[in-house]
Amino acid sequence: MAVKDLGPLQMCLGGEWVGASNGATQTVVNPATEEVIATVPSASAADVDGAVAAARQALDGAWSRMSARDRGRLVWKIGQQLMTRADEVARLETLHNGKPIFESRQIDIPSAAECFEYYAGWADKIQGETIPVKGPYFAYTLREPVGVVAAIVPWNFPLLLAVWKVAPALVCGNTVVLKPASQTPLTALALAEIALEVGLPPGVLNVITGRGSEVGRLIVEHSGVDKIGFTGDTSTGREIMRGSAATVKRLTLELGGKSPNIVFADADLDAAVRGATTGIFYGKGEVCAAGSRLLVERSIKDEFLARLAARAKKIRPGDPLDPKTRLGAISSKGQLDRVLHYIETAQREGGTLIAGGQRADIGTGKGYFVEPTVFADVTPEMTIAREEVFGPVLAAIEFADVEEAIARANQSDYGLAAAVWTRDIKKAHQVAHRLQAGTVWINAYNVYDTAAPFGGYKQSGFGREMGQHALDSYTQVKTVMVDLS
């Protein structure tokens, strides 16, 4: 599915490329140009049944009989082939999401390939244990696949967040039904194509397209799905919990965030300004763990915000396909309207706009672009300090001392990530231990590694992706007791 082939596309169900059984379709829009770039199927209930049935058939067939080491080899090959086609897949990612091609090609695609390679190494190392129990019994455990896994992923990192679920699910012996966001299905379809190219058996990875409110709901409620891995907003996470309750599905949920980025007066201010910039403007701010709440110690607030605002003003939105662009297009018209609404609300509630605040024009008169935006004089009660904007909009809040910094950082329904900037390493560790967040960076921001688990506290969800901990979500433990008397 190269770029030249864009147009009417099909889903991958059971190793076959098919349209929706009822003929329904939906369009994919390039957010940088507002042009339709592809048409994909809008799946029906019958298609969801077909995808789950294909996954179940593969689970009960050759996939379950394949050795763990051979599964690992196939997963490794997916990562290798992904890099072989990296230029093409990166272009697709940028076309349907609006992120700079630099991010797609140099960060997202290599990270996705690395994720496959990392988990490939785990395939033959998922082990049970023997247990010394009382009596004449030999007791041991097995780690077995959960079954049919549904991966429901958002539009901000369309391929990478899919791979975070698909790779560990496959090495553990599960089969997968992948549901990409309706705005960004192209790289999920490319992934299915790559998987078939390297020899993944039909039905092991199925990709079904359509709207989350329809197709996603059908998947969540389907009795043939054993586990759901979801990344998205917290309100949808609650709906998934409700919808899956009847069939008691296993869930991992990586949900919203309002992450605090804490800068103490003794920090390396040059590094902290760069970190605050990366924390909110990387990925256009459409990052679950974005450092959207900047907490600055009062004694350095004015100097720090002046330097940060000056840096923000130098960042210009541009054509996402230009390798020099570092701030691309907001992913959709709906998201653009949401971001602009939050900017208006922040001004109305008393925030001081010190950078950006406007829709941007890159010279084409088209596209969903927003200037990098920074608000000072934000208080914890303001909407922009409490709700997830999911755009390049920063809320700066001052604090007086360590205790107030911790209190304000934890004053949130969310707990996905946080950061601490200080030269006092003792203070850094003490604060990190008290922050209610699944990931805490010290003198850094937005640093991820496939080996390091990622997930949230509080309403940012539960379960962990990446690292060894993710394997727990895709296996179940069976105890076997043998009478030796």
Structure commentary:
The mean pLDDT is 97. This protein has a seven-stranded mixed β-sheet with strand order 14-17-18-13-12-20-21, sandwiched between helices. A six-stranded mixed β-sheet has the order 9-8-7-10-11-23, with helices on both faces. It folds into two domains: 3-255 and 460-480, Aldehyde Dehydrogenase, Chain A, domain 1; 260-450, Aldehyde Dehydrogenase, Chain A, domain 2, CATH 3.40.309.10. It contains 15 helices and 24 strands. α10 links the parallel β12 (260-263) and β13 (293-297). Helix content is 37%, strand content 22%. The protein has helices at 45-60, 62-65, 68-84, 86-97, 101-120, 158-171, 186-197, 212-221, 234-244, 269-281, 301-314, 333-348, 383-386, 402-409, 425-434; strands spanning 11-13, 16-18, 25-30, 35-41, 130-131, 137-145, 148-152, 175-179, 205-207, 227-231, 250-254, 260-263, 293-297, 352-355, 359-360, 369-370, 373-376, 393-399, 414-415, 417-421, 439-442, 457-458, 461-462, 475-483. It has 485 residues and is an alpha/beta fold.
Blueprint (SSEs and pairs):
Blueprint lengths: L10 E3 L2 E3 L6 E6 L4 E7 L3 H16 L1 H4 L2 H17 L1 H12 L3 H20 L9 E2 L5 E9 L2 E5 L5 H14 L3 E5 L6 H12 L7 E3 L4 H10 L5 E5 L2 H11 L5 E5 L5 E4 L5 H13 L11 E5 L3 H14 L18 H16 L3 E4 L3 E2 L8 E2 L2 E4 L6 H4 L6 E7 L2 H8 L4 E2 L1 E5 L3 H10 L4 E4 L14 E2 L2 E2 L12 E9 L2
Parallel strand pairs: 7-8, 7-10, 8-9, 10-11, 12-13, 12-20, 13-18, 17-18, 20-21
Antiparallel strand pairs: 1-2, 3-4, 5-6, 6-24, 11-23, 14-17, 15-16, 19-22
Helix pairs in contact: 3-5, 3-7, 4-5, 5-6, 10-11
